[in-house]
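Hey, I'm writing a tutorial for new members on how sequence and structure tokens pair up, and I'd like a real worked example in the thread rather than a made-up one. If someone can provide the structure for the chain below, I'll link this post from the tutorial.
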Amino acid sequence: MPVNLRWSRITQSSGVSGGTSTLYNLERQLAAAENLLNQLLGQPIMEIKDLPAGRSLAEQGITPELIAGLPAEVLLRRPDVLAAEQKLIAANANIGAARAAFLPRISLTGSAGTASRSLTGLFNPGSEAWSFQPILSLPIFDAGRASANVDIAEARKVIAVAEYEKTIQQAFREVADLLSASDKLTRQLAAQTSNAQAQKHRLELVEARYKAGIASHLEVLDAQRESYSAEQE
């Protein structure tokens, strides 16, 4: 039975106003989502015959396995990194030298698709990953020395380099945060899915006991509430 219909039955039999409020809130969100789809598609979604049916979280593939050994170079595709590199180009910078200076050559993911030790090690206390001063065969800046105002040009170069280094560090930190969150949320989803299944089984047992005359209607309502709450979580 759909969650909203089953919860409607629960609230009707128990008179819980909070459940009715939840039902109305979900209906409001559903209407807003349908309006957004109508806008994106340019036609009412009711006219689309092949619209896929709703799926549970476990069926949606929201926790895909990441490949192991994902190179750090993929961060160069991020819009913020690309924007920072364009600023370096505008300041007559050598992008290859800048990447060599500030982009650690590490893998982002380990064998299990989670954050690699090299990635998490960038943020450990005492790490020298961000504090080294690179010795390069090519200078980061190789042009622009003939600027009318050398001091301003040099200041702009320093600012562009600092912003680029900060952007790279921010990119690594966000990836480390998201990989850690993905691992923890996958485990949380598994635990909550198991709880929802357990509560559903409990509800089935209580309903069977109620039909046999050895459980009260209040026990059934309590089991229904617990099952609904587990599904919502």
